[in-house]
Design brief:
Elements: E1 4-8, E2 14-18, H1 23-32, E3 39-43, H2 49-60, E4 64-67, E5 76-79, E6 87-88, H3 90-93, H4 103-110, E7 112-116, H5 129-137, E8 141-145, E9 148-152, E10 165-167, H6 173-183, E11 189-193, H7 199-210, E12 214-216, E13 223-226, E14 234-237, H8 242-254, E15 258-262, H9 270-278, E16 282-285, E17 289-293, E18 305-306, H10 318-325, E19 331-335, H11 344-351, E20 355-359, E21 362-366, E22 375-377, H12 381-393, E23 397-401, H13 404-407, H14 413-419, E24 423-426
Parallel strand pairs: 2-15, 3-14, 6-7, 10-11, 18-19, 22-23
Antiparallel strand pairs: 1-23, 1-24, 3-5, 4-5, 7-9, 8-9, 11-13, 12-13, 15-17, 16-17, 19-21, 20-21
The structure holds ligand EPZ.
Length: 434
């Protein structure tokens, strides 16, 4: 059965809510384990569907992956002593595009990788041409075979990749990560320019350095790597999830709550925090937590956003911010610059009584509307989060269909939200008496 969320709006969120580890850091860090025969121990791994998918992907290649349980439930031990089958099969890649992150490490470690080409997805075409172009400049040969991409390092896969000077035509997060993992075992120096500066890239680089890689400049647009011949095991703690933290901040604000978003890293949230303050939301920022207070719709003002690469406003917060904008006084302009089709949530928000029009890359939100409950459909991870936020302030009981999108990236969302006063359940459960 496809799970649904049933959400009754109207409760302010009060108390403390904890942020999990970042899915988008955990995915490349798990792929990095391919680079060594030794054990890689990752802490603060979120328990979400995409992590489970990556576990399957690695196991199918011959890796041993132990997900922790009990008190160690967020620890994962990965050992790729032997990679008997360096293939990422279509059955897995089609459910998770981030599977293409194994391309760089596989070819670096084994000299050969066979990875299914990802198709398009709900938010855009999402090609991986920049990953491929980068590998080619490092000496890889690429062939296409029945929907698969086959990459070999020089000399029929017998010699390592060669360091290169790679200037990204466009800033790409997983592209930077993928090629970084290829470069750490390449012969000589690789110089990357126009790199993604996202905290997830920095997190991956920290793990690679702990494994013995020589990397300088991660977190800036120029990264320099001196290749080494071998990497060893390491232990690494994954960053807190900045997008989950941002989603909770908006949940606190939109419901007129008083919420402490705990175990986050406010330094990664700069552009969002600035916008929330422009909206008239009160924030107390600590070292690892943020307290958000608001009066709800009555005190919210509009502030335009345009998504950009980090440190700009994250595309992964655009949908949730749009839900907030429906409650702000005045008209908010939301411009999506990263993906060409990331407005799937608009139709659903409008079905809940929002007044949003889209013209190309720009959405215009006429705010100050009382949202109404409705049956709505989740289309991707962050669009689902926007619908949850809208349902938390809507009048009455909303039903969100296809919450498997949500389960890909938000850990135990309904329990976390219930813990701070939201009325949310999966279809089949019974509302707990409060
Ligand atoms: C990462 O995707 C994230 N995924 C996405 O999170 C996030 O939305 C995105 O970065 C942007 O911040 C992971 O980290 C696993 P890109 P990624 O390559 O790396 C174009 C979520 O909800 N491009 O930075 O795939 C591309 O089409 C998700 O958690 C090329 O043209 O994004 C896009 O327009 C969804 N050629 C732009 O670059 C390439 O070879 C940025 O994409 C690669 C990308």
């Amino acid at each position: 059965m496809m799970d649904k969320f049933v959400i009754r709006g109207g409760n302010p969120l009060l108390g403390t809510i904890k942020v999990s580890g970042a899915k988008n850091s955990a995915l490349p860090c798990m792929a990095a384990a391919i680079l060594t025969e030794d054990e890689v121990i990752l802490e603060n791994i979120p328990q979400v569907r995409d992590i489970e998918t990556e576990r399957k992907l690695l196991e199918a290649m011959g890796a041993r992956v132990e997900l922790g349980y009990g008190r160690a439930q967020h620890r994962t031990v990965i050992q790729c002593a032997v990679l008997s089958d360096p293939v990422a099969k279509y059955e897995i890649v089609k459910t998770m595009r981030a599977s293409s992150l194994v391309l760089g490490p596989l070819i670096a470690r084994t000299g050969m990788a066979r990875v299914a080409m990802p198709g398009g997805c709900n938010i855009g075409g999402r090609p991986i041409d920049l990953h491929i172009k980068g590998l080619e400049s490092m000496g890889a040969t690429i062939a296409y075979d029945h929907g698969y991409l086959e990459a070999r390092s020089p000399n029929e896969g017998k010699s390592p990749l060669r360091g290169a000077h790679i200037v990204f035509d466009k800033i790409t997060v997983t592209g930077t990560e993928d090629l970084l993992m290829a470069a750490v075992l390449a012969e000589g120096e690789t110089l990357f320019e126009n790199c993604a500066r996202e905290p997830e890239v920095t997190d991956l680089a920290a793990l690679l350095i702990a494994m013995g890689a020589k990397i300088e400049g991660a977190g800036t647009s120029t990264i320099r790597v001196q290749g080494v011949s071998k990497l060893h095991g390491a232990r690494h703690k994954i960053n807190p999830d900045r997008i989950e933290a941002g989603t909770f901040l908006i949940a606190g604000a939109i419901t007129g709550g008083d919420l402490k978003v705990d175990c986050c890293n406010p330094e990664h949230l700069g552009s969002l925090l600035g916008k929330l303050e422009d909206c008239g939301i009160k924030l107390d920022v600590g070292k690892d937590h943020i307290r958000v207070r608001s009066e709800g719709a009555s005190g919210l003002k509009c502030a335009d956003i345009a998504t950009e690469e980090y440190p700009g406003f994250p595309t992964d917060m655009q949908a949730q911010y749009m839900a907030l904008a429906t409650q702000c006084d005045g008209t908010t302009t939301v411009t999506e610059n990263i993906f060409e089709n990331r407005f799937m949530h608009v139709q659903e928000l409008n079905r809940m009584g929002a007044n949003i029009t889209v013209n190309g890359r720009t959405a215009t939100v006429r705010g100050g509307t009382q949202l109404q409950s409705a049956a709505v459909m989740c289309s991707d991870l962050r669009a689902s989060a926007a619908l949850v936020l809208a349902a938390l302030v809507a009048d009455g009981e909303s039903i969100l269909d296809r919450v498997y999108h949500m389960d890909r990236g938000y850990e135990h969302l309904e329990e976390k939200l219930r813990g701070v006063g939201a009325q949310i359940r999966r279809m089949g459960e019974v509302f707990s008496k409060r």
